[in-house]
Write a structure and sequence with these properties.
348 residues; alpha+beta; Immunoglobulin-like; 5-stranded mixed beta sheet; 25 strands; 15% helix; globular
């Protein structure tokens, strides 16, 4: 049966066929092939999904994972708890002060730190047998190198992402020498997935956002994440409370931070380190305390929701609220993603 989109199929066929000159190795991409972009989609969109999401090989064969979008890939054996992006840091936070010189409430608490599996390799023999953790960590110095991993035993294996919980690659391994889909069949599967994802992404970036005093951090679904606030600008009255919330099926993490740009930039630049920057991950006010914004908070107008996400296994909440008590126009952004994800609240 012919594909309607012959151009896309031809491009993908040309892309994938050379990679499978050796029939024992099949290509998989992290992010849309070939360059990690969804062609024709206007707007800041991240798609770190697996292409294809499901692939079939024979025992003894390999997959070659090319990461064209930021992300990690990890296999957890059955019975092993699936871990998250962050773990508890070793040393309590100390000496954190706001711009007015006041101690922050989170001094004495343990910070969040990157899971070691996110940045360090496990299973150096690059074989997935189902008995131990094997991973391809993120690269902090540039694009990750292609990762080739073998599957010597029959079975069905699920590879996951710590950075983007919910994204999965299913590898079905048949008996040695079994007939498996051809390179052209795999290319058609990728082309079909790409076509559906482009359609979805266009719909998401065109979404107007929620009504009322609600701002959504991203317009996301099925692994497609728009790095923007919806709506990006909102007008409220003095005394109004605005709810900042994550989409129900988002695979991203965001925060909402108001304050001087250089102050926010400093925290954003320090976000990913030996520990995650506390001024990004924690709320500006203690948990259970309302955030009331008058433009002068903490000595320079800084308030922060702390990290928000839609992952039910994460300690971060899905939403938070800020009450605005003084007229003015106030800019904010997500310190996880920087200036590319910014918004504005006008208080009348």
């Amino acid at each position: 049966m012919k594909l309607r989109n012959l151009t896309a199929a031809g491009v993908l066929g040309a892309l994938l066929l050379p990679a499978v000159a050796d029939a024992a190795t099949k290509p998989v991409f992290r992010g849309p092939p070939p360059k990690g972009q969804l062609k024709g989609v206007k707007g800041p969109v991240v798609d770190a999904d697996f292409y294809p999401r499901r692939i079939t090989i024979a025992a003894g064969d390999k997959i070659k994972l090319t990461t064209v979008a930021f992300g990690d890939t990890i296999f957890f054996p059955k019975g092993t708890p699936v871990q998250g992006l962050a773990v508890e840091g070793a040393e309590p936070i100390a000496g954190a002060k706001d711009a007015a010189g006041a101690d922050m409430y989170f001094n004495g608490l343990k910070p969040f730190a990157p899971n070691p599996l996110l940045v360090a390799p496990a299973g150096k023999d690059k074989k997935i047998t189902g008995k131990k953790i094997v991973n391809n960590p993120v690269s902090l110095s540039g694009p990750s190198k292609p990762w080739t991993v073998a599957f010597p035993k029959r079975g069905t294996y699920t590879l996951r992402s710590l950075v983007h919980p919910g994204l999965k690659l299913t590898v079905v391994v048949k008996k040695k020498g079994a007939k498996v889909p051809t390179a052209k069949q795999d290319a058609r599967r990728v082309a079909k997935q790409l076509k559906a994802t482009v359609k979805l992404a266009k719909k998401l970036v065109a979404a107007p956002g929620p009504t009322g005093n609600v701002v959504q951090a991203g317009s996301d679904d099925r692994g497609v994440a728009s790095i923007a606030f919806f709506p990006a600008k909102k007008t409220v009255a003095v005394g109004d409370t605005v709810t900042f919330t994550m989409p129900k099926r988002s695979v991203e993490s965001h925060n909402v931070a108001f304050g001087p740009k250089d102050y926010l930039d400093k925290h954003a630049q320090a976000f990913f380190g030996p520990v995650f920057e506390p001024f990004v991950t924690f709320r500006s006010e203690a948990p259970g305390t309302p955030i009331t914004f008058d433009g002068a908070n903490h000595g320079n107008g800084w308030v922060n929701t702390g990290l928000l996400d839609a992952d039910s296994k994460s300690p971060a909440p899905k939403s938070d609220q800020i009450t605005f008590t003084k007229a003015g126009t106030y800019s904010y952004y997500c310190a996880v993603h920087g200036n590319d994800m910014a918004g504005e609240i006008t208080v009348q």
